[in-house]
């Protein structure tokens, strides 16, 4: 399973198999938003994560 930090996952118990299943949630890009814009936003949030958290905690 290829996952990165911040990826959303779905976890559930499959009673038929008797096992816990983890799946990466595949979110589609909302209509009207280009994938490049989302990638840029993710890069900015990752880059400034600590600063944004410090501002929140003031």
Explain how this protein is built.
This is AbrB family transcriptional regulator. By secondary structure, this protein is of the alpha+beta class. The chain has a domain of 29 residues. The chain has 2 helices and 2 strands. The longest helix has 13 residues. The chain is flat, with a radius of gyration of 16 Å.
How would you sum up the global shape?
flat
Question: Which class of secondary structure composition applies to the elements?
Answer: alpha+beta
How many β strands by DSSP?
A: 2
The overall pLDDT average reads 86
Widest sheet: strand ordering: 1-2
H/E element string? EEHH
Report on the biggest sheet. Answer: 2 strands, antiparallel
- The CA-CA distance between the termini, in Å, is 38 Å
Q: Helix fraction?
A: 25-40%
Q: What proportion of the residues form beta strands (DSSP E)?
A: 15-25%
The count of helical stretches stands at: 2
Radius of gyration: 16 Å
């Amino acid at each position: 399973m290829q996952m990165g930090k911040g990826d959303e996952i779905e976890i559930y118990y499959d009673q038929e198999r008797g096992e816990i299943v983890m799946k990466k949630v595949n979110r589609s890009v909302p209509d009207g938003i280009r994938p490049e814009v989302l990638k840029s936003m993710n890069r900015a949030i990752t880059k400034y994560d600590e600063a944004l958290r410090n501002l929140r905690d003031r």
